[in-house]
Amino acid sequence: MSWDPVMRARPLVVLGAVLAVAACGAPESGSADSLVLADAYELGGYNPVAGYGAAGEAKVYDGLLKLTGGTGLPGFVPGLATELPTAEADATVWTAPLRSGVRFSDGSEFDAADVVATYRAILDPASASEVRSSFSMIERVEAVDPLRVRFTLRHSYAAFPTKLLIGIVPSESVATPGPATESPLNSAPIGTGPYRLTALEPTRAVFEANENYWGGAPSVKRLTLLYVPDDNTRAQRMASGELDGTSLPPLLADTFEAPMSVRANASADWRGVSMPSGDLVAGDPAVRLALNHAVDRQAMIDNILGGHGRPAYTPFADVYGESYEPAATFAFDRERAARILDDAGWRAGADGVRAKDGVRARFSVMYNSSDTLRRDLALAFASDARRVGIEVDLEALSWDRIEPRIERAGILLGGGSEPYDADTQAYNTLHSPLSDPGAGSPYDNASRHADPAIDAQLDIGRRSTDPAVRAAAYRAVQSRYTQDPSHVFLVHLDHTYVVKDSAWTMSGPILEPHSHGVTWGPWWSLQTWTR
After folding, report:
1. What average pLDDT does this structure show over 205-228?
2. Is the CB of residue 517 less than 8 Å from the CB of residue 414?
3. Structural domain tally of the chain?
4. Where is the signal peptide (predicted)?
5. Is residue 226 one of the residues assigned to a domain?
6. pLDDT for 422-480, tens place per residue?
7. Does any domain span residue 442?
8. Which end of the chain offers a freer environment for a tag, N or C, measured as fewer CB atoms within 10 Å?
């Protein structure tokens, strides 16, 4: 998906629905079996039906599958399933056997009915789930017996294991249809995971180890998350010793030294600018192509990311192997950008800004006002655009003010929320807008650009079960995209974190998705840590 699920404010449900609130006062780090971490994202919104933890990072939930760490694309291993699901030859029917004896945090027993209810709730239009379009290939889900579940798909879909990472909730918690953002699960989650939520305030959440966890009780017994939206404030609190870890922009993270460690984890997370097709300037193919050649991506990596990143020309990164087309790039060439604009009739005026048929080459780009990294990338983009005669007005706004203007202004976006297959990395970002706009996120293909040739190849990649055919389709997507781009993709990030040195033995990094708060980073597999 191309939207920004974790950067958008999560709705806070009335906190009276939560368990008892812990005593006030700043928590202290350093306890032998507890951690205090600070995050930039609002607390709450812990409902998988609304999309929480779709990439398998939720600590209070388990999916049928979970991810393995290491370099490159992660693999899949059983979670609530006892083995990887089996698929019929055409990959339209998938069957998964389930674990017995697993219980939810409310004491109820897990079985196939809970899996069925969770997926049906995601697909129910009444839930208004922004991830519903990501599961649109599911035609029906049914319990074969109490410990076996079967998914029947509308079409072949080799990437289906990526859809089995999302957490499972008790069937009773979704028995009454309604908007997922209004569910009690947002503030009082009920899962089978290694942790359970015991307290929630607007700026503080406490998770305690599930001592009866089917996978074994975690050694880290208590996790406290603090909501600290300002980057500099998190850095100050980290430096003061109050925190055991936090996420920070690269240049700020790199200022820390022992007894702190800086961790930079590779991701398929991208940043780029959507170019709304309905705008007379940003929607002009020549302007989009020229700006792709005008931006100095390497300078952004060096000066804004501190070297922690790679150029992005499409949503695809080289981690996708045979599905990655290394020739699908845009050379940094301002003279070429200027020629493209000249040839299209965009002529420079006395002030250097171009115009065509009385239309000044000027458009707006919005970015989230709380994100300093997006701010800096937006400033660099605007500066590069101005050097070829395109004027970009930057607007720092909250997400609720950005969303109504998606089709009228560009956005400094992030994407790559489900990067564990080429399909889930690119489909929603590059495919033509869905005919049912309520089925997905409004940030899906924020440019609203439609290219039937790209659609056809994306659909081949989505529906084929032949790895070679899929890879060829995705390479064709990238080659076609560079002829008529819909965005100006800028960088793939390394996510940077600061960690207080400790005696914990961690499991190592994993390829990270767009959601790069402290549910990822060194803490993505917190439940497996040992001393």
Report:
1. 97
2. no
3. 1
4. 1-22
5. no
6. 999 999 999 998 766 555 688 999 999 999 999 999 999 999 999 999 999 999 999 99
7. yes
8. C
